[in-house]
Specification:
The chain is built from 3 helices and no strands. The chain is mainly α. InterPro entries: Ionotropic_Glu_rcpt.
Length: 70
Amino acid sequence: MDADKPKAFPRDSPLVADMSTAILKLSENGELQRIHDKWLMRSACSSQGTQFEVDQLELTSFKGLFCYVD
């Protein structure tokens, strides 16, 4: 175990399984994609001369938050 690595939950927390299950359900029913599209996709305001770059988040972007490796 790496003591210096941050952890989202204490070791053996039942929340790890609960959060993983919740995220999986959101992914399977399309809700994560809907949130992504609503908040992270370019909107009509970008056509008004505003230029910006967006790093897209994927489900794997969050795996470090919900995985615990010994």
